[in-house]
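Exercise: predict the fold of this chain.
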Amino acid sequence: HERTSSRRLTHEKHSSLFYLREAILSSDEYRIRLNSLIEAYNRDTVVFIHLEKTGGTTLHHVLATNYSPERASPSHYSYLSDFSLFDNTYDFFSCHIDYDTALRIPRASKRLIALFREPVERLISQYRFWRSHPLSDSLGEYDPSRLAKELNPEDFFSHPRVLPLPMI
C-alpha cells in the first residue's frame, strides 16, 4: 500500500496527461525497455510452428540446443497467451500456433519451420493420446479425452464437439 501511494503521488504531480506521458517517455526505464525491444526486433529468429502429434517435442529439443536457455522458448509455448512484448528475450520460438500468428511475432527477420505428418496417422496418434490422457476437471464434458475414452475413432472424429477443434 505504501508503494502504491508513493507511485500515485508521483503520477499526480503532473498537471496533465500530456506531461505524465512526457515524463514516462523520457524516463530511463522506458528508454531501456525500448532499446531492448529494438535490439530484439533486429535479431534473427527461428519460429517452429509446432503441430500436435508430429514429433514436434523431439524436434524442439534438438533445435533448442542451438540457443542458450534464456534465448529458447519452452516447449509447447503458446505465443498468444504467454508472450509479452516487453519480456521478449527469445530467438527461438517453439509454439502451438498457426502460420498467420507466426508472421505477427515482432521480428524483422524470421525463419519459419513446421514438421508435417501424414494426416490420418497424425489423427490416429491424437486420438490415442487423448484416450490415454487423464481427464480434465476444468473442461468437464468438453474434454476431448472424455469423448475419446467413450467413442470409437469413427464416432469420435464425426462428433460435433470434435469436428471444430483446431488440431482436427
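Check your answer against the key: The chain has nine helices and three strands.
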